[in-house]
Design brief:
- The chain has helices at 3-12, 34-44, 50-61, 65-79, 83-91, 96-103, 108-121, 127-134, 137-151, 155-162, 167-178, 181-184, 193-202, 208-212, 214-228, 236-244, 249-259, 263-271, 274-285.
- The chain is mostly helical.
- Helix 6 packs across helix 19.
- It has 19 helices and no strands.
């Protein structure tokens, strides 16, 4: 297979690509009881303490996003209160360690849409590129729909404004946004050669790292972020761990461990503290027996 075909297949089929060993997610759906977990959280929230907050983290971090939302729904049935608002109130949300609690209660599309919006409109970073290039077509389409709903603005408009200085890159990003999933290929084992040719010709050099070795590139982003002490909204490490934990975080962790002395878990424990450390190490290590 031509290198160009391999590259574009990686970009357009990244959730989880045909080009990589399927070592996959760190967080998987295990048997659980949403009612029991909701009652345990209610009991823990009766008293504000560090230990009780840790108990809630332990309950939620052993679950998938869908399971966390199910627990939240049961909580609301029992208490007749908004689960996310109650968690925000209980955890305060002013510290980064507590802000992550709010992020893990969002759907993946809500979370990525919020990070995409921040990257395109409020800061000078390339998070938007990482999100767009490494999202599957279906995920990207859903993120764009959530973006428009939440911010009353199309992603393409903010991309064009953010990249007004670079028509080549904005053109490439808009191509990724605009392609319909059914137009790309009839099944995930085949690539439309004509579409591949068009996209490869439009692809800027700076996007190639994600296409040729995405796990290594994610690992590099995590390492740079861990040691750079970025603001919470600009932080690549939580973004990658939260959004990739149910997709391919095991591959990213393996790439990090191979590239950096002591490995990812050691770095998370060294550079993060308290509940932020608990949340991120749980996402990195996973819940698999």
């Amino acid at each position: 297979m031509k290198l160009s075909v391999i590259i574009i297949t990686c970009i357009l089929s990244f959730n989880y690509g045909e080009c990589r060993p399927k070592t996959g997610p760190t967080i998987i759906a295990l048997p659980f009881n949403a009612v029991d977990d909701a009652n345990a959280i209610i009991s823990a929230m009766e008293k504000s303490s560090s230990d009780n907050k840790d108990k809630i983290v332990d309950i939620l971090m052993s679950k998938t996003i869908a399971q966390r939302l199910e627990i939240g729904a049961e909580y609301e049935k029992i208490k007749n209160m908004d689960f996310k608002k109650e968690i925000e109130k209980y955890f305060n949300g002013k510290l980064d360690s507590d802000k992550n609690m709010l992020e893990i209660l969002k759907t993946t599309t809500e979370f990525l849409a919020s990070r995409l919006h921040h990257s395109l409109t409020k800061c000078d970073n390339e998070d938007y590129m990482s999100i767009m290039i490494t999202s599957s077509t279906e995920m990207l389409r859903n993120v764009c729909a959530t973006y428009q709903k939440e911010y009353n603005q199309e992603v393409s408009s903010d991309v064009n404004a953010h990249l007004s200085y670079d028509n080549e890159l904005s053109g490439f990003i808009n191509k990724l946004i605009s392609y319909d999933i059914d137009e790309q290929r009839s099944d995930h084992a085949k690539v439309d050669d004509e579409l591949t040719k068009k996209l490869v010709s439009a692809m800027p050099t700076k996007t190639m790292n994600f296409a040729t070795d995405p796990f290594k590139t994610f690992a590099e982003q995590i390492n740079e972020d861990i040691k750079g002490k970025n603001d919470f909204e600009d932080s690549a490490c939580p973004r990658i761990l939260i959004s990739r934990s149910e997709i391919d975080m095991a591959d990213i962790r393996t790439a990090y461990d191979a590239a950096y002395e002591n490995g990812l878990e050691w770095a998370l424990r060294k550079y993060y503290h308290k509940r932020e450390q608990m949340i991120l190490t749980a996402l990195a290590n996973g819940n698999q027996p």
